[in-house]
Amino acid sequence: MKERLQWLDAMRGFTMILVVAYHVAQMTFGINEKSSSSLPFLVLFRMPLFFFVSGFLAYKADFLWNWPNALRLTWKKVKIQVLPALVFLCVFIVLRKTQFCNTFLYAMKSPTKCGYWFTWVLLHMFVIYYMACLLQQWVNGKWLKAHCQFHHAVIWLLWLLSLFVYETLYLPKQFTYTQDLFFRYSSLIKTMNFLPFFLFGNLAHRYWDKVQKVADSSWFFPLLTIVAFVSCADIFRWHTLQFQWTNLPRTVAIYSLLMMVVIFFRHYQSWFTQEHPVGRGLQYIGVRTLDIYLLHFILLPQLPAVGVWFNQNRPNFILEITASVSLALLVIAFCLLASHLLRISPVFRQYLFGRK
To answer: Which SS3 state, helix, strand or coil, does residue 353 take?
Structure first.
């Protein structure tokens, strides 16, 4: 797909707002997620949607997959995904924590890395994806020259395998490897938690013409809405499935909500162009998600009194969302201001944000 999809950049900006809003509600306000009316819902699709977009953009139809190109791409991602996160993690610890060495060691051992897990996990996904593309190229050249319908078979198999692994994360008694220290320290637990959505986005791009036809059909969106509603009702109200099937409605809900957001942004794509103020603003955020992600943890204020009020006066879905998103937009504005200030230096621009 040669033409850049403006609504996709806008959707990424929308997702970044949700990410910051979630952290505002959780870290700034201190809203209890178990009693919150908005956080459990937002957590269902905000990060899956982010990885969906990353996987979508990772597919390059005309890219020549060979070892030199794959290694070049991998090294480029290492420079962008690892060094900036380490630098900003250290800055975050210095400014927001008390003991640097102990906190840094704790972060390195934690799957979440004090919040800076995203870029590291995304690097895992890119490496896995690049290996799969190399394997697909080899398989296509070896056996599938006359079978075009199987040209994406490796990615399909990897997606199905990732779904199986994803489900095992919620069965710790049956699959004890999830408690292994290596999986925790390396954040591979997080990788397995979101890889299915990265690969789903990649497959959606590979079959984009067919996906659009299905999305435009008269029956798909109503069916998707019903499935999402029933799945969310089971997660938050009914709890009909137990034991090993408990995660099934959650998985269905995530994919349904994710696709509903994608269809919404694509259907109203005229709102999200550079000519529309809403689209211009969301795109501006969408193309600077790395900057915002790295900076926003440092700039989050502390307002626990707000969380106390929400925890005592629940449920308040609209009020929680309004308060969280409003402050998130303010935090994002300061992140962008700090980003522009740092980008004055070519050294910071290249090594902190991966831009020459």
So the answer is: coil
Between CA 222 and CA 228 the distance in angstroms is 10
- Give domain limits for the chain: 6-351
Residue whose entry in the numeric block shows the structure tokens 């935090």: 331
Tokens representing 37 are: 């009316």
CB atoms under 10 Å from CB of 33, counted, come to: 13
- Measured between alpha carbons, how far is 234 from 306 in angstroms, rounded to an integer? 30
pTM of the shown model: 0.92
User: Residue 220 corresponds to which tokens in the numbers above?
Assistant: 């798909």
> What pLDDT score was predicted for residue 148?
55
CB 90 within 8 A of CB 104: yes
- Positive or negative torsion for Cα 15, 161, 266, 259: negative
- Given this model, what pLDDT does residue 240 score? 77
Q: What is the pLDDT, as a whole number, of residue 222?
A: 95
* Backbone phi, psi, residue 274, to 5°: -65, -20
Tell me the two tokens of residue 44: 């269902």
- Residue pair 115/296 in contact (Cβ under 8 Å)? The answer is no
| 8 A C-beta contact, residue 40 and residue 233 | no
Instruction: Write a three-state SS string for 101-114.
Output: HHHHHHHHHCCCHH
Q: What is the pLDDT of residue 1?
A: 45
Q: CB atoms < 10 A from the CB of 301, how many?
A: 12
CB proximity list for 203: less than 8 A, separation 6 or greater: 55, 152, 155, 156, 159
The segments of the chain whose pLDDT lies below 70 read 1-3, 142-150, 172-174, 242-245, 314-315, 356
